Amino acid sequence: MKGIVVKEVKVGEADKIVHILTDGLGLVSASCKGAMRVRSRLVSSTSLLAYSSFSLYQGKSMYTVDDARIEVQFWNLRQDVVKLSLAMYFLELVRKLAPDETDLRGHLKLVLNTLYFLDNGKRDISYLKPLFELRLLSMSGYMPDLVGCARCGQFVDQGMYFSPQSGDLICRECHLPVDDSHYTLLGSGLLAAMRHIIYSDFSRLFNFRVDAATLATLEKLAEQYLIYQTDGRFKALDFYKGLL
Ligand SMILES: [Zn+2]
């Protein structure tokens, strides 16, 4: 079974418990005996962010890691404190938002691909962060409705307003300046990017292009949407933003 370590908790002197996002068991916790010892063969394969092949043994209350072989280490991003803290934030989001299901292969694929681009630097942080947030929310029961105007149903891409609070769109004709002040007018490039992130096939997910100004607004709206929908405070997000 393969998976990525999304959390580790030290237990006593030499042991730890790891939380793994797996390709077949959902999110599981497993104890690693002796993994904190420097010479343990499990040191790197069970470290945070490691994507490894695990042999798990099912005990009474928890799995135990029998063996683990590292597949991908994401070495570059571990050397960069901003990238690393963003990666930690992605892991925190997955832990908190992933549904309690055994098939989280879509979530795993999203995490691995996002970390891959963060690691090799082929996509900017300002591109990856809103993409990850919006796609993860959509896969985890918080999909916004960007099909058309929530009031008249009109599907247009010019002059649409989006609300991070209600997670929907209204068109220019339906928009009321006073009552709808929490709606933000979207440029057509921004709406297209948001629709792409939410509805596109996974194979094309990382292929859209937008200019820097659009990306800045996308980043702001995605984060607002996340905070409104999950009512959450994310420690790793605060830490990441403290570095900027
Ligand atoms: Zn309308």
UniProtKB/TrEMBL annotation:
Q: Which InterPro entries does the record cross-reference, listed alphabetically?
A: ARFGAP/RecO, DNA_rep/recomb_RecO_N, NA-bd_OB-fold, RecO, RecO_C
Gene (name only):
recO
- Species source reads Neobittarella massiliensis
GO biological process terms on file: DNA recombination; double-strand break repair
Q: Does the keyword Glycosyltransferase apply?
A: no
Q: What does this protein do?
A: Involved in DNA repair and RecF pathway recombination.
Alphabetized, the UniProt keywords read: DNA damage, DNA recombination, DNA repair
Asked if the record carries the keyword Flavoprotein, the reply is no
Q: What residues does the DNA replication/recombination mediator RecO N-terminal domain cover? A: 2-70
Q: Which domain of life is it from?
A: Bacteria
| A Pfam family annotated for this UniProt entry | RecO_N
The record's similarity note reads: Belongs to the RecO family.
Task: Report one GO cellular component.
Answer: bacterial nucleoid
Supply the name of the protein.
DNA repair protein RecO
